[in-house]
Amino acid sequence: MDGISLVIKSVILGIVEGITEFLPVSSTGHLIIFENIMGFKGTSPNYVQTYTYVIQLGAILAVIILYWSKIKDTLVNFFPKKVGYEKSGFKFWLMIVIACIPGGVFGILFNDLADEYLFKPVIVAMTLFLGGIWMIYAEKKFRNKGSKSSRNSRSSNNAKGNEINVNTKQSITIGLFQCLAIIPGMSRSASTIIGGWISGLSTVAAAEFSFFLAIPVMIGMSLLKLIKVGGLASFTSIEIISLIVGFVVSFIVALMVIDRFISYLKKKPMKIFAVYRMIFAVIVLIAGFMGVFY
Predict the structure, then answer these.
(1) How far lies 199's CA from each of 143, 266, 271, in Å?
(2) Contact (Cβ atoms closer than 8 angstroms) between residue 10 and residue 246
(3) Phi-psi region of 288 (alpha: psi -120 to 50; beta: other; left: phi over 0)
(4) What's the whole-model pTM score?
(5) Is 154 helix (H, G, I), strand (E, B) or coil?
(6) Rounded distance, CA 66 to CA 57, Å?
(7) How high is the pLDDT of residue 42?
(8) C-alpha pair distances (Å), 91 with each of 88, 168, 179
(9) Would you say 216 and 100 are in contact if contact means Cβ atoms under 8 Å apart?
(10) Are 206 and 193 a contacting pair, CB within 8 Å?
(11) Residue-wise pLDDT tens digits, 14-50
């Protein structure tokens, strides 16, 4: 693949990542499918899988920018003595850490197996389809439970002055559900939102908690992947440029998507995303049988 082609394809993948990272449709699954369709590959071993992880950091940076007011507030009011334990940044980030533990454990145990055996378009499509059915069932059964508890987990569109009030039990529940995202196509966003519903959070509070949870999770996964392959020094200069381009594009697109997604969740159900997953999965499966994929 020549350098210009690699960069152009990286722009497309950056757009895909920026749109899908926080929607409950699996950004990793979409990247795997589009990478395969376009024949996206570098010359260095493990470049594509590393790219798939690292490009997601662009979308994570968008969360940090958009929610900086909330992040800054948790840091300023970090110590419980100043504002009380329940409103302290210490409690907020402690809940994030607790929610990260199950994913960290299962990720260390199973990520390599997932990379080797599950990063395939047809498998991703099957997971997207089954995950769509699971989303429809979970929303019908559990979303109202979260709505009734929304007074305990208030959330605003711009994260200014809001309190995502999550306790230890809820954090563990959400963390366990996040483990499903190890399977490409399940969607980390969908898994954590469903975990939030089951634990009693409103849809918006669950979604925003998943945004904050993504910060340490995705940074950790990306760094781990880079360490395993020997860092950026293991890639060619054009591959690094491609990675940077994908990162920047995903950041810009995610900035435009996140607020719109939260506004949508305040008024409408997530069923539309489940239906999209199922239709997209069927298209991918048909394409797979027609030999479209490499």
Answers:
(1) 10, 18, 20
(2) yes
(3) alpha
(4) 0.87
(5) coil
(6) 14
(7) 77
(8) 5, 10, 22
(9) yes
(10) yes
(11) 999 999 999 999 999 999 999 988 989 877 778 888 8
